[in-house]
């Protein structure tokens, strides 16, 4: 018993003796960032007697083995993927701030250039109208009217080329989408915990690159075409691999016996829900997206006409102002009236185009069409996966779709009959979206 007590005392106290015969040694490796666990062993000589004289400290040995505990390659890879995902989220937050600042700046451009150009055109019209009534200053008045109208024509042409109201709408929508991407990426990282994979990082990077291409920051070069030949929905999400849309029931329902009540065994998907999604997909393609593309073409045609008419009228007024006072009688009055009329019409065209923000309206229609196009691709991707266990939960997916359309989940049941091939597109009267 005394030997055990003495061994315990030796284990707890630090030996300060420099006697080379002492066998109590502890060699610690170099300090590292990771904590290194220690394995200790106390050796008591055999045949140790219970008497105090029979147990000397030299007979006891304390051995410490420091274990080098290093992280496994899998843990290091998971930590690197999580760091990369956080870097993507930080970049998305920074992009959102940049687009927000630039959007406000370009919205100010729209207001300032609108009022400045209208002021130039109207002031020139007034000078051209007053020129014949002041014979002594007719040269100065017609020169001033011509210079102002020429400046207004050049300004209108430049502003119509870049469409500041459309630029501002692009940045507003980009700001919203970047913030949404940041929330999605951070939620993915928190939900996965330490199980972030390279596939998660690659998916986030693809979304970042798609958003950068959809809403570029530079003005020139790289600006989106403001007067495209064909109107296409805006696309801010990466393209998916094409999957054939199943026209029959999924194979998984056949394997499970086609029971529609056992939703717990089919990941929330039923044949009835698939029919709802197919009917909804048909309505989205035939009505909602088509409507916004059709109206977008009308707005684009009107905007293109006004973009040409404004600078042309201002330029014609500048040419007419050069002939003010050059002819006798009616000739000088005709030039004065033409310059005044062209300047007023140019200001009117500019006000309708930029005051009415036709560029912003066109971009809004493109974004709405893109919203419905993305929803169609989400539904196609879900239905294209034959194994329901690999899909998102059916009830959750139905709720998300209903919320995006501004409907309740029960409202989607009316689209079930529209999935039938016998139902014609001309018979579809209602739109799928109620939100906008």
UniProtKB/TrEMBL annotation:
Spans annotated as Disordered: 239-269
Signal peptide (from-to): none
Organism superkingdom: Eukaryota
Compositional bias (Low complexity): 258-268
Biased composition (Basic residues): 239-254
Transmembrane parts of this sequence: none
Protein's name according to its UniProt entry: F-box protein
Organism (species): Panicum miliaceum
Highest classification ranks of the organism: Eukaryota, Viridiplantae, Streptophyta, Embryophyta, Tracheophyta
